[in-house]
Amino acid sequence: MTDPNKKPPEGDNTDKQLTAAEAAKRVRRTVTEVVDGKEGKTTRTKEVEVKASEVLSSRDYGTHVVVVTRDGQKLTGE
């Protein structure tokens, strides 16, 4: 059984839980696009926002945030 009087370790951030919207704002997903150009097809990468509805789970480690999306991607942000 868990002792109700036992305090969590000091490094544990159980008091501050991120909502899905807050976690989504702190991470970005890298997307690669194929673009037709004068010299043929080339690729271009860009960073896009993550929607709150895509967030399955998140964890704030103090120095960074880790978000797991519904499609299984693990993203890290500040």
Low-confidence residue ranges: none
- Number of β-strand runs: 5
SSE-based structural type: mainly beta
How would you describe the shape?
elongated
Number of domains: 1
| Distance from first to last alpha carbon | 36 Å
Query: What is the strand content?
Result: 35-45%
Write the H/E string, N to C. HEEEEE
* Tally of helical runs: 1
Q: Largest sheet at a glance?
A: 3 strands, antiparallel
Mean of pLDDT: 85
Radius of gyration: 18 Å
The portion of residues assigned to helices is under 10%
The largest beta-sheet arranges its strands as 3-4-5
Characterization of this structure:
The protein is mainly beta and 78 residues long. It has one domain (20-77). It has one helix at residues 20-26, and strands at residues 28-37, 40-49, 55-60, 65-69, 74-77. A hairpin with a 2-residue loop joins strand 1 (28-37) and strand 2 (40-49). The two termini are 36 Å apart.
Q: Can you lay out the helices and strands and say which pair or pack?
A:
Blueprint: H1 20-26, E1 28-37, E2 40-49, E3 55-60, E4 65-69, E5 74-77
Antiparallel strand pairs: 1-2, 3-4, 4-5
